[in-house]
Amino acid sequence: MTIITRRTALSGLALGAGGLLAGCDRLNDSPAFRKILFAGEEMNLGFQRAITDRNALAREFAPDDRSPVMRPNGTRDPATPSYQAHRAASFSTWRVAVEGMVQRPMTFSIPHLRSLPTRSQITRHDCVEGWSAIAKWTGTPLKSLLDVVGLRDGARYIVFQCADLYGPNRYYETIDLIDAFHPQTILAWGLNDRPLPVDNGAPVRLRVERHLGYKHAKYVERIQVIDSLQRVGLGKGGFWEDHYDYDWYAGI
Amino acid sequence: MDETPVAETRPRLIYRHRLPTRIWHWSNALAVFVMLMSGLMIFNAHPRLYWGSYGANSDYAWLQIGATQTSGYLRVGSIEIPTTGVLGRWTDDAGNTVNRAFPSWATIPSGYNLAMARRWHLTFAWLFAFGLLFYMIASLFNRHIQRDLSLTRDEVRARRIWEDIKAHARLRFHNPARPAAYNVLQKFSYIGVIFILIPVVILTGLTMSPNMDAAWPWLVDIFGGRQSARSIHFLCAAGLAGFIVVHVLLVVLAGPVNELRSMITGWFRLPPRDVMGETVE
């Protein structure tokens, strides 16, 4: 009697586990359940914004704390004809356009960016995959640019359009104004006291230190100021968000 | 017709698990199930663990699950354990050989999908963390912690623990004098899970968040840096998985129907020997 009970219980457990697994995959594709799952992102964003200081600075490390190698990820070389032409010219031809809901649309060359006030920070880069690397980033605070061009009323998000392609899509990312005006949010053109390498996003990339790596757009060509994420891509605010279900809020 | 005295033959039912305990047990069972399996999928995105603040592919990993051309392995320090078929390199339902750390039967979703695994993980984290908080507060108020979980001075003595180990080996899990009470090993494991493993897994989980690290840098410092915290997070998860295996095994050995019923309805049937034996109050 007992043996049957135990055996039944065990096989019941095994069956149950199998059923649960298949159930999870089905739930994973159910629109109603996805809504619940995706609500977690809103909760995490709301909760974190509520309990943490919006201006808190990411930890800055000492030079000796740096990783021996700043691991590049994502695109290692955009390799498009126009990118190769810019690269051949040592990026002297590269321009970063700042446009959209701004009072004075402008373009910035790399020397122009370098001539603005500069910030260096030794910070930890956390990839969504789980690894971390510490490196020194030097660049122009995004706030300086935004102050120069002046935001128009209703501006809410900043879009970064990049030179690297993922299939037919250019890489793009968006951040909100809390992160855009954060002192550590910089357009970095230097890595570990050298010009930013192609592997890591030359000639200029975003550093938005309180977010996971995929928010840190590389090869930035265009910065657009918009009022709604609906205005870019498929409306979720980034390449990975639009095409692969990644969270727009990558602070977690 | 003589009536047999009812109290001595019919199994006695006692109310063993209060409602908050039962609610938390099942909500937490669901949460842990999802957290562990979605966590394994997240781990699959980078199946290496490090100590310190940083750690990436070119840095030394103290634990790694990987694959060669022909085999899967788990490497811990300098020890390499062949794990072909289970870890690193395995065959999926369709018969394809896959080089990935944890196999599809152990992960949510079953096919590689870091983004959705994160959605599951970071949404069910709410149930997991606030479930524990609810249970702890309720258990302070209904005195479950003070009455049932706290260890007496006698119970932490080596002799008493050894006696309980021997009792477990004989599959005796209940003190005949107090059949509803948790035994010593049970208390140790519940205290370890409720007050150490789950809180540490939640806190190290929070340190995975770069925004929380900016706001609360002391938290990631406690664990010795983000990659150390990630390693501890994984070790605690392994501890929880180990607890579940032993927990379910002991439920099966102790009488699964009675144990399950008591965790659903609260009512536990006393083992017959306590009813018939000398220890009936």
CATH class of the largest domain in chain A: Alpha Beta
What proportion of the residues of chain B is helical, as a percent range? 55-70%
Query: What's the number of extended β-strand segments of chain B?
Result: 8
Quickly give the CATH architecture of chain B: Up-down Bundle
CATH topology of the largest domain in chain A: Sulfite Oxidase, Chain A, domain 2
Kindly describe this structure.
The complex is a heterodimer of chains A (252) and B (281). By secondary structure, chain A is α+β, with helices and mostly antiparallel strands. Chain A has 7 helices and 10 strands. Chain A is globular and about 75 Å long. The model of chain A has no long low-confidence stretch (mean pLDDT 94). Chain B contains 11 helices and 8 strands. Residues 1-7 and 274-281 of chain B have low confidence and may be disordered. With 281 residues, chain B is of the alpha+beta class. In chain B, helix 3 (114-141) packs across helix 6 and helix 6 packs antiparallel against helix 9 (226-254). Chain B has helices at 6-9, 19-44, 114-141, 144-149, 158-169, 184-206, 210-215, 217-222, 226-254, 256-265, 272-276, and strands at residues 13-15, 48-49, 63-67, 72-76, 79-82, 88-91, 97-100, 267-269. Chain B is globular, with a radius of gyration of 23 Å. Classes of the chains: A alpha+beta (252), B alpha+beta (281). At the A-B interface, helix 1, helix 2 and strand 4 of A face helix 2, helix 3, helix 7 and helix 9 of B.
Pick out its properties:
heterodimer, A: 252 residues, alpha+beta, Sulfite Oxidase, Chain A, domain 2, five-stranded mixed sheet, 32% helix, globular, B: 281 residues, four-stranded antiparallel sheet, two-stranded antiparallel sheet, 11 helices, 8 strands, disordered N terminus
